[in-house]
Write a structure and sequence with these properties.
InterPro entries: Cupin_2, GPI/OXD, RmlC-like_jellyroll, RmlC_Cupin_sf. With 137 residues, the protein is an all-beta fold. The chain is built from one helix and ten strands, in the order E-H-E-E-E-E-E-E-E-E-E. Strands 1-2-9-4-7 form a five-stranded antiparallel β-sheet. It starts with 19 loop residues before the first strand and ends in a 17-residue tail after the last strand. The C terminus is likely disordered.
Length: 137
């Protein structure tokens, strides 16, 4: 058995991100899933690119504020306490709209942990199979 308590505020934010991203997977000692804490100010997006994952399921649990998730069909609004789930192969771009009243904070959970299965998605292109480096898990 193993247990760990992680002070998420002590985990340094990742550099060169469109919003604050604290990768918690390593500090938590997780091997089968990815776990990140995000804080996005108005106008900031969460992932590095509009993307989908080939094998990874994702879930965004909103801690505070309202998260907008753009998909090919519509944009969802997820309020604090809400959970947005994404199946593999489903394009999405999570963000905090520029006209939001304040920051949005959320936990992003992905399983299985997959550092290289993010694929860029261009809603204006026919072929969305280009590698994204959309890394947000």
């Amino acid at each position: 058995m193993g247990y760990r308590v992680v002070d998420t505020d002590s985990v340094e934010p990742e550099p060169d991100r469109p919003c604050e991203c604290r990768k918690l997977t390593g500090p938590a000692g997780l091997e089968e899933m990815a776990l990140n804490r995000f804080r996005a100010e108005p106008g900031e997006q969460v992932p590095l690119a509009y993307h989908h994952h080939e094998t990874q399921e994702e879930a965004f649990y909103v801690l505070s504020g309202t998260l907008a998730v753009e998909t090919p069909d519509r944009t969802y609004e997820v309020d604090a306490g809400g959970l947005f789930a994404v199946d593999p192969g489903s394009p999405q771009r999570a963000h905090n709209p520029a006209d939001a009243d304040g920051a949005v904070e959320l936990l992003a959970i992905g399983a299985p942990q997959a550092d290289d299965d993010a694929v860029a998605y261009d809603p204006d292109a026919v072929d969305d199979s280009t590698d994204a480096s959309a890394d947000h898990e």
